[in-house]
Amino acid sequence: MRVHELAKTLNLSSKEVIEKLEELGIKAKSHMSNLDEKAMELLKKGKAPAKKVTEKKVSVTPAPTVKESKKKPEAKVEQKSEPVESPAVSTAIIEAIRVEIPITVGALANKLNLRVAELIKALMAIGIFANVNQLLSEEIIHKLSTHLGTPIEKIAPLEERRIGEGPLKAGEEKHLKPRSPVVTFMGHVDHGKTSLLDAIRKSNIAAKEAGQITQHIGAYGVDLPGKGHVTFLDTPGHAAFTKMRARGANATDVVVLVVGADDGVMPQTIEAIDHAREAGVPIVVAINKCDLPHANPQKVMMQLQKIDLIAEEWGGKTIFCKVSAKTGEGLDNLLDMLLLESEVLELKANPVCPAEGVVIESKLTKGTGPVATVIVQKGTLRIGDVAVTGAFFGKVRSMRNDRGKSVKEAGPSYAVEVHGISGIPNAGEILRVVGDEKTARKITESRLIGIRERESRGGPKHLSLENLHQRIQEGMSKELKLIIKADVQGSVEALAQSLEKLTNDKVRLHVIHGGVGGINETDVMLAAASDAVILGFHVKAEPRAQQVGEEEGVDIRYYTIIYEAVEHVRKAMEGLLEPIFHEVVDGRAEVKKVFRSSKAGAVGGGIVAKGKIMRANKVRLVRKQVVVFDGKLASLRRFKDDVREVAEGYEFGFALEGGGDIQESDILESYRLEKGESPRLK
Ligand code: GDP
């Protein structure tokens, strides 16, 4: 029998059973450990064994990879309970100077016990020309700290520090209470994420509260009488999940990976796994559509085993549930398993400190003004509380739960719609309760300064191939994370293998996600959340992804030859990147018609959607996000005339050099290369 099964029969939690076993000298690692009869007998009698009975080894074939074991809940729990010993004892002798960032040159000089002129000189030595009142960013301070050999630590501004210091800070441990899990559904499109969310909601809410309108607030909770509570995020999908993480928030405790039993593992299934693993969130697999006659759950299990997601019944550590959103089969078991997983995770929060939560949605409504849906993560949020989120604050005027009911308070893991905040914060923003409105105003003001300062500074927000070497040297980067998108799977694998081989003792190369197809917004969000660089091989970024990439400061690179990509990354690691050419896209047009002539081959007729198409530029023909031609134009015409350029909104005809093929709906991009770094990276 497994520990969790025994726990059930004894009406105890798995943890209590493990503790009791330990008292009896029996070691059981987790809720999944197998117990033999003797151990069970002893536990029931509460007697110590004559001989030490050890956990029956769960043999795993094939051996779990580092990836799998790294992401296991057990590992997470261990991390929490065992304080990590710092190996860098010697550096602790030099006491770090602790400063609020941004800080002015004058204030920093004071802290460092230097004359202002001395500090300005030191700054000049690292290429920064500053006056006494100039605010210094974290990046500059880091460089300065290395230059001076004085460790400088960042601390939160005073008001923000005060918020964190609830009256219970010192003895907070004893106030920690178990909290319910927050769950997100992820998986390939059409595998049934929405249907499962609906089915669970219907069978657990609607029936009992018939007549009540269920309100969409971005999350809903399910009460399982006598067992617990589960909160589901109502926006399935990877982009939303990772977008929040990119903002620094992790709202999800457990990811349910939905895989259609008729369809098996698909590209977005892999994408979901990569996103969950990068976030360090445990996965529970729900094999859906088991009602279908051609459902093949075994096949799904086999496919997932290949990517190191191994079912318990096959010796692995991942919980698999067979379900059907259509018939409702297996849904109760799925809920039980989610509670079990959360028990293993030992989710806890202090319900009595000032509340803190994460914004999962926000909008402006006509009647009530801005509303934000918040999942409370600690403390209890109450009407009348003054809360700060992003650059906004306000007094909580009213709150509604997922059933549309007015509530006066919300505790950990519960979602509520909050009214009374002065604006609409971004999803992923943290909401914190502070003492009073004066403090709240001060905090938002100082945040606005920070935001403005960051904006004016511009600069790379994320790791890029240009700043990689510098970051390695400064000890800020020990890993280069990469996302590879290509036109065929073979290229993804070939590139990943060649690139990971570049790993040396200073920097490890790690491909966190690879897939076939154009670079999409989800890839960009993952890169932003994980500080990764994106490589497109024979593929381009979708226009929206390009835009988000620029906003987020994510480095996106395009290659057509594997050797070139590998060389480029190698040089970046060694700081040997040649002056870089960056691309300037001048215009984009869609092909509406194609004519074929024996003389010129394919001639495309199109209309300029954005910018202009220039005769002298290079062009790229993109078909379903795949680059099918990269070169020069053979001709560019308006009616019968050769022209130098065609402006936005105008029709034109063109042929490609070498008579390259053109098809309807292809996108023609007109671009040129300019020397130097892309302006957004400066
Ligand atoms: P999503 O894109 O992952 O949110 O998938 P949906 O929930 O929209 O479901 C896609 C399609 O699969 C819909 O037509 C559903 O009716 C169907 N579907 C979902 N779950 C089941 C199931 O358990 N059994 C069957 N037979 N069909 C299902």
Characterise the protein shown here.
This protein is an alpha+beta fold and 682 residues long. The chain has six domains: 83 residues, no CATH class; 59 residues, no CATH class; 172 residues, P-loop containing nucleotide triphosphate hydrolases (Rossmann fold, 3-Layer(aba) Sandwich); 97 residues, Elongation Factor Tu (Ef-tu), domain 3 (Beta Barrel); 114 residues, 3-Layer(aba) Sandwich (Rossmann fold), CATH 3.40.50; 93 residues, Translation factors (Elongation Factor Tu (Ef-tu), domain 3, Beta Barrel). The protein has 20 helices and 34 strands. The chain has a six-stranded mixed β-sheet, with helices on both faces. Helix 11 packs parallel to helix 18. It is globular and about 95 Å long. The N and C termini lie far apart (61 Å). About 8% of the residues have low confidence. Guanosine-5'-diphosphate binds next to helix 10.
Keywords for this structure?
682 residues, alpha+beta, Rossmann fold, 6 domains, 6-stranded mixed beta sheet, 6-stranded antiparallel β-barrel, 20 helices, 29% strand, binds guanosine-5'-diphosphate
Assign an overall shape: globular
CATH H-tier superfamily of the largest domain: P-loop containing nucleotide triphosphate hydrolases
The strand line-up of the biggest sheet is 7-8-6-9-10-11
Helicity level, as a percent range?
25-40%
Query: Average pLDDT, to the nearest integer?
Result: 82
Please write the CATH class name of the largest domain: Alpha Beta
**Rounded Rg:** 29 Å
What is the structural class? alpha+beta
CATH topology description of the largest domain: Rossmann fold
Number of distinct helices: 20
**Alpha carbon gap, first and last residue:** 61 Å
